[in-house]
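User: Fold this; tokens only.

Assistant: Input:
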Amino acid sequence: MDTKQQILDIKKVCEYDFIKIASFYNDKPIEATFDGKKLDNYTLAINFINDEFLKAEQSTYLVFENDKLIYAGYYSTSFEDRWIKKQNGIYYCWHSENIDNYIKNSQNIDKFSIWITLNPYAKTDDGKIVNISKVIEDTIISNLQPIRNKVGKTLKESQKNTKNVKEILKSI
């Protein structure tokens, strides 16, 4: 087995492969503002297995507490743009209060990790390759109901009250 493969953790979630890219820790407080308000005691930082993961393209990400999935999401640019605020050479978690405070206030921050999809692509019927990160996120949230997700948990139920656009056009 390749040495790199031995040190990288990979797991399957809802038939998709994810790779562990980072874990969390507390560092000295960051100087930052959000919505015009100064953030107090903002200390949650991220330790990457390799800094190249900051450049990871559009993907689905998962947050685990030990082996328990607590959050699923996706981003459309790079991982760094979605998650990181860098200050004084430290990568601070810059996601949302829902996740950041939950992890920061935990007794054991080192039990939390971030994972991203190894291959967020699928081939369409006409042979095109498309990124399906949002589909992966929706599938995971609908099927596994991560405890920290607020949006998407009622996706299946909400779809019962909607119509396919092609069906709407047939009735016009």
